[in-house]
Amino acid sequence: MSAEGFTETEVDAMPDRLAETFSGMNVFITGGTGFMGKVLVEKLLRKCPDIGKIILFVREKKGKLPKQRLEEILNDDLFEKVRNLRGGVAPLLEKMHIVTGDVIEPDLGLSDADRQFIIQEVNFIIHAAATIRFDEELRKAVLLNVRGTKLILELAKECKNLKLFFHVSTAYCHLHEKLLEEKPYPPPADPHKVIQIAEWIDEESMGLLTPKLLSKLPNSYAFTKALGEALAVEAMEHIPLIILRPSIVIPIWQEPVPGWTDNINGPTGLLIGAGKGVIRSMYCKSNSYADYLPVDVFINGIMIMAWNYLHCGDKKSNVINFTSSAEIKVTWLEMIDAGRDIIMNRVPLNGVVWYPGGSMKHSRLYHNICVLFFHWIPAIILDTLLFCLGYKPVLMRVHRRISKGFDVFEYYTNNQWDFKSDIAQTVRRKLNTRERRDYKVDAIGLDISKYFEDCIRAARKYILKEPEDTIPAARRHMMVMWIVDLVVRCLFWGLIFYWLSGWCSSLYTATVGYKDTPAIVGTSI
User: Which domain holds residue 495?
Assistant: First the structure.
């Protein structure tokens, strides 16, 4: 029985107007082989059986041809549900069409035939291709996130049957705004001039200009995403276009595979690092919060906004924040505490190097001292031991990566932003009961602890390649590390107490001895 009092049979009988929106439509997706893109492709294949073609923009990578890459993706566990539903990979491939190209190329790397196919056949464009590396060299970030967006928009303007263009931006691209509203903002620079600079000069010269171009922005990602969004705003005069601003996109909440992800970016990497006992100190305002959005919620939002624009005729809602903090806030401390509890008591990771612990520090000096004693010194000792035993040292390399990540991470954890999300909250009220169930975009029924547990289990399986049957052994190893941690702590504080008692004893002896020494007064030669 649903919350509205309908039976499951009655709910299933209701129309799925979102799926109908994509019936017979050809959807061109850039970034379709990335984390967000894979979840989008899976959802379209599973929920829209009458969709025309899903056209993926794919490049050759690591010696693998585009078709090989697509087949590998469709055989991933993420697609198991839709494979079973449609009868294998072959029927899914029939719904797919590959165009070979690369967003970083001056002409997108498209052949004339592929370009004409897109111009003549495409109805929807979802532009999600981007480099999401915060520390990316500025020239490459400009060519991918800014010039690539410009070229895709120019291609869209030529499309004969384009019904809607989605530009995937980010809620964290206007960092000077502590409250991000659902409207365009002026870019930090002229995107056309920045593209020209990136085309004219080499990477080394661009590196010299980077501090001046970024100004107060912390990284190339925020800068280039703001410029790309400005180009999309310009294009609104020529094509039907919606700018989508998701916050920090995190693993799947509900379907098709709870907790699934293909990377360790964001909170997942933090939980794994802490769970392995590698990260033991963070410089962070523990009571502040970031805004997270499960990837399946965002993908559902894309489909809802397509229906709202085309079938509800809402042409004014064209800059949309997809964020969650208006409904639910999870502080950094709450997230770390929940993750620690799950990893220590329910889903331990294999091969932890130390018992998970540590804390968040409000003082940078205190944090730096803890990093020295609990990150770098143990890494040096353990890597030396590994080297002596004939193994390859790894911990120093891991901590260099962690340190580099902290340089970016600390800016976001020690600042606070809020977001308006009125459009998404308004539009979802138009959905019927079936659509609210099948395209979940609210926080009703969210269990934070269970969600984090799903994320850790999925990361364990899909990222760390640690099978479920290794959990009992991991639990035993965790107990051993708890004992080791306890013994070391006792020895450490015992030595501290011994040293302090010795120092106090020496001080007392010196003081008493000084008092008992007779004064020599009036001595003469």
Answer: 473-520
